[in-house]
C-alpha cells in the first residue's frame, strides 16, 4: 500500500511538518511524564483510526520502557487497573479533546477539573498541546492513507 501523497516529498508540507515537529519538541521537553505523552498520543491515534501513529507511538512507548500489558489496554483504559489516576485523567482529556465533534460542549468542566487535580498549569498546557498536535498528525496520515507497520523507533529524530 502506498500513501496518496508523499508527506515528506512536498516542500509545502515539509515546511509545515518542521513547524509541527518543533511544537511537538516543546511538549517532549516539558515536565509532562513521557509515559503520559505516549499514552495520550496512542489513545488519540486509536480513536482517529490512524494506523501509522498507532504503530509509531506503540513502538516508541515500548522502547521507552512501557509494558505490553499497558499498551494493549490503552483502548480500554476505563476497565483497566494498570493506569494511575493521573494517567486516567490525561486519557479522558485526550478522548474528549479528540472527540470534539461528538459532544457539543467539547471538554467538560468535570474532565478538565480532574486533569487539573493531577497536573500543574505547565503540564496541562503540555497536555492540551500534545492532544492538538497528535490530532493534526492523525488527520494528515488518515487523509493520505499513510501505511502502518514499518515505523522504527527514533526514525524521525
TrEMBL record:
> Which Gene Ontology terms cover its molecular function?
peroxiredoxin activity
Q: Which PANTHER family match?
A: 4-CARBOXYMUCONOLACTONE DECARBOXYLASE FAMILY PROTEIN (AFU_ORTHOLOGUE AFUA_6G11590) (PTHR34846), BLL7811 PROTEIN (PTHR34846:SF7)
Name under which the protein is recorded: Alkylhydroperoxidase
Among InterPro entries, the record links this protein to: AhpD-like, AhpD_core, CMD-like
**Amino-acid biosynthesis in keyword set:** no
Origin species, per record, is Streptomyces violaceusniger
Q: Which NCBIfam families match?
A: ahpD_dom (TIGR00778)
Q: Which UniProt keywords apply?
A: Oxidoreductase, Peroxidase
Domain (Carboxymuconolactone decarboxylase-like): residue spans on this chain? 18-95
Amino acid at each position: 500500500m502506498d500513501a496518496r501523497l508523499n508527506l515528506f516529498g512536498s516542500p509545502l508540507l515539509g515546511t509545515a511538518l518542521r513547524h509541527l515537529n518543533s511544537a511537538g519538541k516543546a511538549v517532549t521537553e516539558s515536565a509532562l511524564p513521557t509515559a503520559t505523552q505516549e499514552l495520550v498520543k496512542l489513545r488519540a491515534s486509536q480513536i482517529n483510526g490512524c494506523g501509522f501513529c498507532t504503530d509509531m507511538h506503540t513502538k516508541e512507548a515500548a522502547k521507552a520502557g512501557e509494558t505490553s500489558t499497558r499498551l494493549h489496554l490503552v483502548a480500554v483504559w476505563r476497565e483497566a487497573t494498570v493506569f494511575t489516576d493521573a494517567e486516567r485523567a490525561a486519557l479522558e482529556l485526550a478522548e474528549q479533546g479528540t472527540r470534539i465533534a461528538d459532544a457539543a460542549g467539547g471538554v467538560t468542566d468535570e474532565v478538565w477539573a480532574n486533569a487539573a487535580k493531577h497536573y500543574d498549569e505547565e503540564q496541562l498546557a503540555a497536555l492540551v498541546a500534545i492532544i492538538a498536535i497528535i490530532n493534526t498528525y492523525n488527520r494528515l496520515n488518515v487523509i493520505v492513507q499513510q501505511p502502518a507497520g514499518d515505523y522504527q523507533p527514533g526514525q524521525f529524530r
